Amino acid sequence: MANANLNISVIEKRMLKQTEAADYTGLPVKHFKATCPVQPVEMRPGTILWDKRDLDKWIDAMKEGAEMATQDAILGKL
């Protein structure tokens, strides 16, 4: 019996279209458009893309803000 190897290389995209960026953040497109402060990049005329790293920074900043709000609430109860 013959053995076969299959080498597949997957390159993860860094730049996302608006629908992909909304999916990446877990938001509906309508909500993403209204709330996302991340500025897209025009890679070429008519091609607007969002950088995953910038989206990650935005999400991380929101998490840190929520963490601080929780700590403030705890301190406020003391």
Notable features of this structure?
78 residues; alpha+beta; 3-stranded antiparallel beta sheet; 3 strands; extended; AlpA family transcriptional regulator
End-to-end CA span: 72 Å
Given the helix and strand composition, which structural class is it? alpha+beta
User: Secondary-structure element order, as H and E?
Assistant: EHHEEH
Low-confidence stretches: none
The counted number of beta strands is: 3
**Average pLDDT level:** 87
Number of domains: 1
Strand order of the largest sheet: 1-3-2
Instruction: Give the overall form.
Output: extended
Compute the CA-based radius of gyration.
19 Å
Specify the number of helices: 3
- What portion of the residues fall into strands of 2 or more residues? 5-15%
Secondary structure: helix percent: 40-55%
- Report on the biggest sheet: 3 strands, antiparallel
Protein name: AlpA family transcriptional regulator
